[in-house]
Amino acid sequence: MLSLNSPISDISGIGKALAKRFSNINLETVSDLIFCFPFRYEDYGKVISINDLSVEQTATILGTVDLISNRRSARKRKMLTEAIVSDVSGSVKIVWFNQPWIGKSLRQGDKLYISGKVTGDMFNVYFNSPMYEKYSSNFSPMGIIPVYSSTEGLSQKQIRTVIKSAIHLIDSIEEFLPVEIIKRENLMGLSQALNAVHFPKDMISLEKARRRLAFDELFLVQLWSQALKRENASQKAIAQKFFEAETKEFIAKLKFELTLDQKRSAWEIMKDMMRPTPMNRLLNGDVGSGKTVVAALGIYQNYLNGAQSAIMVPTEILAMQHYKNLHNLFAGTELKIGLMTRTQKLFKGEKISKNKFIEKCKSGEIDLIVGTHALIQDGVEFAKLGLAIVDEQHRFGVEQRHKLIKRGEEARRPHFLSLTATPIPRSLALVVYGDLDLSLIKQMPKGRKKILTKIVPPDKRGEAYKFIDSQIKLGRQIFVICPLIDPSDKLGVRSVTEEFEKLDKFIFPHLSVGLLHGRLKSEEKEEVMSKFAGGELKILVSTSVVEVGVDVPNASIMMIEGAERFGLAQLHQFRGRVGRAEFQSFCFLFSDSDDMKSIQRLKYLEQCHDGFELAQRDLELRGSGAIHGQEQSGFAEFQIADINDLEQIKKAKEIAEELAVEGLERYLALLKKLEDYKFTYHRE
Ligand code: ADP
Ligand code: MG
Q1: Pocket lining: 290 vs ligand 1, CB cutoff 6 Å
Q2: Which of 44, 142, 170, 559 places its Cα 20 to 30 Å from the Cα of 520?
Q3: Could you list the mean pLDDT of each consecutive 10-residue stretch along the chain, which spans 684 residues?
Q4: Does residue 515 lie within any of the structural domains?
Q5: If DSSP states are collapsed to H, E and C, what string results for 233-265?
Q6: How many A from CA of 322 to the centre of ligand 1?
């Protein structure tokens, strides 16, 4: 008997191969299927005559196949299926890309429904990769059709069919929202909503279903942050003193003037640390906005209060960079810094043994420890940890952050500060980081050069390569970023390797080219990265794993392949890898997409250099999933919630707070749902 927990392969008609494809998009069980919501809908309305088709319209026709054939397109090596379909009013061309089976399964004379967007110009109207359904008297694909995220070899039709065969199980899913809330907020019941979202009857009930499911996503994340917040508030920390004179002197000695945002953020941090409960704050500022010095002000106050600080970063190179920078920042003080990574332990600029290091940390001789995961793995103990900082916080799991915090004493939790360069619009931050207080640095320090950004059309590729060559002759270095093309190749190894070979063997055979991707061991990654940072490699071809925080001042070009596949905010982050020195830097966006919307979207990048604005655009255009890359699952819980809907976000927050005060004990189904939720999205 099929149940919610059955693997998808138990559904009749699903073989191993098909189940594998579902698994590639993280759908393993029947329940996963039911909770996988369409990401959009197409409203096909009624069948219209071919004669009445107009460009840009979404339409359905019913016609007969006159001609159908497969061929290879010359330029793009894609498989092309072309057909002519006609009804009594006229005929229209249909094109499908890379779905050769269509050419084999349809024949001349077949009667079909064709549904999709009409493409073309005034003279030449055609359907580009539309859906189709063979005509039968008892079925028509008219009305509202859901569209699901998919992968190679998994058609919309297959997904719909599979969901249909599991739909009867929806009724066995337990309602988890308290009845009072459902009534008061006029929400649709869970099983009704799940039914409607997959098989919408009309727009009104679909909207209501989406509103209910969106509420669930927002509500659960709020409940969870409430729990975290309460837990934090029940902890004790040392309420610090503010050392006004010393702080002013430190600031006066800096080689630059702090921006207003930096001052405000630093003050927010220092004030938090003056309270008897642990600070739990996120410092969010674009790449290069100067987060380090803000963190340093917190570290300094902590030091003046006689406590130790620790800063944890995701890689050895970053640790080294932070160590050097902080060393310079604290040069005029007595504060002593140590570096601890897997391969290196430094104290007062000198190498020391691991045992010595651990001893000095335990005795309190080291005031500030900069390190990688080694900090939480190798039995490091502190005399008195007062401030724990995590840089590029999205790179660490909740668990790792907790481990760092727990290096402090039980009775005196350290204050906690996260740094991130991923610009997050306020509304989104409210949702995702509901348990954290937020400081923003929006202003960039004065005098930064803009990075010249250009979309490069396919026929200008050669010129771009020539330009790259000329930059390298000037002594510069180049980043090349490749996207993930096939979701089943989760680390994007295939496309990046192909690109690497092309550049290394054919385009720049005279230059040293390096390759970086997620399947390399972390030591291998570090080695490639440090060779590039050291100038030994001139070109670095990488997936999006390229270290977010690493400084290679000599790099002047960021070249991004398949740019349309990335979010704007993410592209902006890549772009932030260059332009770190005095010379003009460039960002080239390559795209083979013919889709006008994608190109329009990329055009924002040419003009806009503000990470927050770009992130906001992303959010409006593509939803929250676009803010982080696919491999960073931080926002995976939002399939359907509209993060721009502040109204609903506030409502969900209010109700979560209300329930948190009342206590959840009465609501067993909700408690259980919350447990599942924590496990699925936060691995707690
Ligand atoms: P990020 O926010 O990316 O971590 P960093 O803290 O590494 O940025 O700062 C980037 C660079 O900008 C550093 O070289 C730092 O010394 C410099 N910097 C920071 N604040 C200012 C400022 N207010 N004016 C000028 N330069 C600054
Ligand atoms: Mg930084």
Answers
A1: yes
A2: 559
A3: 89 87 88 89 80 86 92 78 93 89 89 87 82 70 77 82 89 93 95 94 90 93 85 89 97 95 97 95 89 97 97 88 93 95 89 94 95 82 93 69 74 89 75 82 86 93 94 95 72 80 93 89 85 94 72 91 88 88 91 83 92 83 54 56 80 90 89 84 55
A4: yes
A5: HCCCCCCCCCCHHHHHHHHHHCCCCCCHHHHHH
A6: 12
Same structural domain, 403 and 297: yes
Inside any domain, residue 311: yes
Dig out the tokens for 293 from the structure. Answer: 């010095």
**Distance of alpha carbon 11 from alpha carbon 448, whole angstroms:** 58
Q: Are residues 521 and 484 in the same domain?
A: yes
Judge whether 72 lies within some domain: yes
Ligand 1, residue 551: give the atom nearest the CA.
7
Q: Is residue 670 part of a domain?
A: no
Ligand 1 neighbour 289 (Cβ under 6 A)? yes
Residue range(s) defining the domain that contains residue 80: 45-142
Q: Are residues 488 and 552 in the same domain?
A: yes
Please work out, in degrees rounded to the nearest 5, the angle formed at the alpha carbon of residue 566 by the alpha carbons of 565 and 567: 130
Three-class SS of residue 405? Answer: helix
Q: Let me know whether 567 and 580 are in one domain.
A: yes
Polymer length in residues for the chain: 684
CA of 258 to the centre of ligand 1 (A): 9
pLDDT value at residue 630: 36
Q: Token pair of 583, please?
A: 């010379």
Nearest residue (by CA) to ligand 1, atom 19, is 290
List of residues 6+ apart from 287 with CB closer than 8 A: 421, 548, 549, 573, 576, 577, 611
C-alpha 338 to ligand 1 mean position (Å): 21
488 lines ligand 1 (CB under 6 A): no
Q: 445 CB under 6 A from ligand 1? A: yes
The amino acid at residue 106 is L
- Full-model pTM: 0.74
Is 526 in contact with 500 (CB distance < 8 Å)? Answer: no
What CATH code is carried by the domain that includes residue 91?
2.40.50.140
Domain's final residue, options 405, 420, 435: 420
Confirm or reject: Cβ of 259 under 6 Å from ligand 1. Answer: yes
76-82 long-range contacts, Cβ below 8 Å, gap at least 24? 76/592
Query: What CATH number corresponds to the domain at position 27?
Result: 1.10.150
For the chain, how many structural domains are there in total? Answer: 4
| 35 bridge partner residues | none
Report the distance separating Cα 495 and Cα 561, nearest Å: 10
Give the pairing of strands 555-560 and 539-542: unpaired
